[in-house]
Amino acid sequence: MDIEKRLLGKDKRAAARLISLLENKDPEGLEILKKLYHKSGNAFVIGITGPPGAGKSTLTDKLAKALRKQDKSVSIIAVDPTSPFTGGAILGDRVRMNDLSMDSGVFIRSMGARGHLGGISEATSAAIKVLDIMGSDYIFIETVGVGQSEIDIVKNCDTTVMVMVPGLGDDIQAIKAGVMEIGDVFAVNKSDRDGAKRTAREIEMMLDFNKDVKWRPPVKMVVAVDNQGIDELLESIHMHRTYMIDNELFDERRANNAKNEVVELIKERIEHTILDKSQKEEKLEYYAKRVADREMDPYSAVDAVFDDVKSALQV
């Protein structure tokens, strides 16, 4: 089937097929993406992240519906926990967006995290490009919700929405460290619950500590399940986009994201070269046995492995 032609014709099945090829690291999919890459870069990519139970799926669903009312095409990449049996996504988020999936102007793809600790799948970056090439106006990435290690999202998005919710216990603990820095917009979901205003105040207090940032992330109160505050949240997202463009920061962020992606791909290429099972498994087993027997230290083993693959890496 002519995936290229169908993808440019906004065929959702072609997009799904190409994403599957890329997830499975199929050379055919990679060649297609290389060929069509120059047609990407038009979609506005929004990350939706936050701790488990914050209501990210419902919030994403409501934001997407609000954009559909504006006749915008929307794609959603929902990164779910990986099934220990099949290696695929459990599809919980997709079930929550079931009615949205019937909209011809919406594409939803669930992707398994596959053990990736950054909160997103390794294939997420490639999937974003596919959906961008397909012609999506907006692309949402909803992360798996792993907490403070979930910072890779910022490397893939133009705007990142940090979703918090009252009643998770130690709210400051939940929003401190690196996670606080990745939010461009904060949404306190389920704000009809007790403690919502306190959660918002604590977020504001944390933001007060960072006085060197020109963009002050807004903190919006929403009740996604009742569609309350969704329009205001969407307005804040667009305000961030406008700010980034007006201050010549939009292209800078995308350049940084591109740099990070190239570095990650280099790391992946090196890792696969070194750990190629068809050629290196016996040597790894040999060095591992020597390390276990205390005949060699692990650092020298790494040096030996790198010496073995220098020719393959052309170093």
For the terminal residues, how far apart are their CA atoms?
A: 39 Å
Strand order of the largest sheet: 3-2-4-1-5-6-7
Q: Sheet bearing the most strands, described?
A: 7 strands, parallel
Q: What structural class results from the helix and strand content?
A: alpha/beta
The tally of beta strands, per DSSP, is: 7
Characterize the quaternary organization of these chains.
single chain
Mean pLDDT: 83
Topology as a string of helices (H) and strands (E): HHHEHEHEHEEHHEHEHHHH
Rg calculated over all Cα atoms: 21 Å
Low-confidence stretches: 115-119
The helix content is 40-55%
Count of DSSP H/I helices: 13
Bin the strand percentage: 5-15%
Task: Categorize the overall geometry.
Answer: globular
Write a structural description:
The longest helix has 25 residues, at 250-274. The two termini are 39 Å apart. It contains 13 helices and 7 strands. Mean pLDDT is 83; it is low at 115-119. It is α/β, with parallel strands linked by helices.
Key features of this structure:
315 residues, seven-stranded parallel β-sheet, 13 helices, 49% helix
Topology:
Blueprint: H1 3-8, H2 12-23, H3 27-36, E1 44-49, H4 56-68, E2 74-80, H5 92-96, E3 106-112, H6 124-134, E4 138-142, E5 159-164, H7 171-175, H8 178-182, E6 185-188, H9 196-208, E7 219-221, H10 230-246, H11 250-274, H12 277-292, H13 298-313
Parallel strand pairs: 1-4, 1-5, 2-3, 2-4, 5-6, 6-7
